[in-house]
Amino acid sequence: MTADRVRWRTRPSFADSAIGGWATKGQAFTIAERVNVSGASTDMYKLISGTYITTSDNWVTNRSS
């Protein structure tokens, strides 16, 4: 995590109804795959937990890239 807090999602959507909670700076996650979000300017990572988080470099850092 690059930002202090980032919302994680229950599905690949940036809609408020998809917000599941907050991830905090320093947390690490395992990425299962990169998912295209229809109508959005950025993709999301699907995590092995089944939740989703933005791929934006403004918010998160992918150490495997």
In short:
The chain is mainly β.
**What's the oligomerization state?**
single chain
Report the count of strand segments: 5
| Radius of gyration using CA atoms only | 11 Å
Q: Could you say which structural class the secondary elements and strand pairing correspond to?
A: mainly beta
Main sheet: strands, sense, barrel: 3 strands, antiparallel
Order of helices and strands: EEEEE
Order of strands side by side in the largest beta sheet? 3-4-5
Low-confidence runs of at least 5 consecutive residues: none
Shape: globular
Helix content: under 10%
* Discrete helix count: 0
Strand residues, percent: 35-45%
Instruction: Report the mean per-residue pLDDT as an integer.
Output: 92
What is the distance, rounded to the nearest whole angstrom, between the alpha carbons of the first and last residues? 14 Å
Number of domains: 1
Overall description:
It is a single chain. The mean pLDDT is 92. A hairpin with a 4-residue loop joins strand 4 (44-47) and strand 5 (52-54). A three-stranded antiparallel sheet has the order 3-4-5, with no helix packed on it. Strands 1-2 form a two-stranded antiparallel sheet. The protein has one domain (5-54). The two termini are 14 Å apart. Helix content is 0%, strand content 35%. With 65 residues, the chain is mainly beta. The protein has strands at residues 5-9, 19-24, 31-35, 44-47, 52-54. The protein is globular and about 30 Å long. It has no helices and five strands.
